[in-house]
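User: I'm putting together a teaching handout on how multi-component assemblies are represented. Below are the sequence lines for each component of a complex, exactly as they appear in our records. Could you produce the 3D structure of the whole assembly as structure tokens, so the students can see both representations side by side? Please keep the chain order the same as the input.
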Amino acid sequence: MNEAKRRIESYLSRLRKQLRKRSAGNWKESVTELRSHIVERATVGGEMTEASVEGVLQCLGSPEELAEQYLTDALPWDSEANSARFRYTRQFSRWTRVIVTGVPVLLLATIGYLLGGVFLICALSKPFHPYSAGLWRIPDLHDVTISLRLGLGSGHPPAGSADLLGWWIIPIGLLSCYVLLSIATQLALRSFRLFRGFHGSAGDHTGGLIYEG
Amino acid sequence: MDLQFALFFATLHYKVVAMSQPESGAADRWEVQLRKGCLELAILAILQEKKLYGLEILQRLQSDSDLIVSEGTIYPLLSRLSGLGLLRGEWKESTVGPDRKYYVVTAAGMRRLNEMTAIWEQFSSSMTNLLQPCRNGRER
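Assistant: Of course. Below is the structure of the complete assembly, with chains in the same order as your input.
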């Protein structure tokens, strides 16, 4: 390799390093294009001299300055691409948050409402079905089962069963119902707010960023 | 502590003094920015006629306008316009030297060119009207 070519490669190597370091667009093609420019510009009468190469490189400026120009000029479309990437990432993270947080919260709220409803029905049916509704301890063959019975057509508990709370099931049931329904409502509201927040911002396609078109 | 305060006030003083000084070469910088701002339009306008490669674009700009700030300006700008989808690059073999990357204006580039031309015409006409008194004053 003669000195002129060595000088070109040294210049391009510095430029490549700068562009690669800062991930500037399609840097490989940029370097190839510049090599083509330098060679053609520096070739006079079919010959490329060290002096002619030096002249062309001086016109181009230092590799660092040139890399800076690539980065400055690439900025608007790079930031556009970045903002698009950022938008999709943010959208994805929102979806993840809604699924990871919202769904379990909604599930807990549903369970809360169901349990609250069971306690309410149990408390309300106790006066009408005093021997079947309530919290019963039912002996089994090998085990003991605790059962919250609503007294709705389930008949009397088996012999040997004990009503654990008796008439206390009415205040305790109502209180439990109130507490569970309150918690479930809070959870449901939270889940709804989470979804509304996501839905409201999903239409914001600029993602709060203003960029050149 | 005293030294830090002294340094802080010295820096502050320097900044205030620097800001109060009239900017030398401000007109030059404005001209450079103006030229750079027009380059995008000029390149699209040149390339709509025929596909050219970097050096040809440079020579065309140098012969038909005085927009070129430096040779290094053109390639980053071409890269940017390609990235925006306004130009398309095509590598072609050359019989006399290394391969050349020719640039073609895309459909999006043509739309952009039309938009920019309309803006430019309106802008230049209003600036000409605005600067009329200055021109008259200079002629007197």
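A couple of points students might notice: The mean pLDDT of chain B is 82. Chain B touches chain A at residues 54-55, 70-73, 75-77, 79-80, 83-84, 89, 94, 97-101 (CB under 8 Å).
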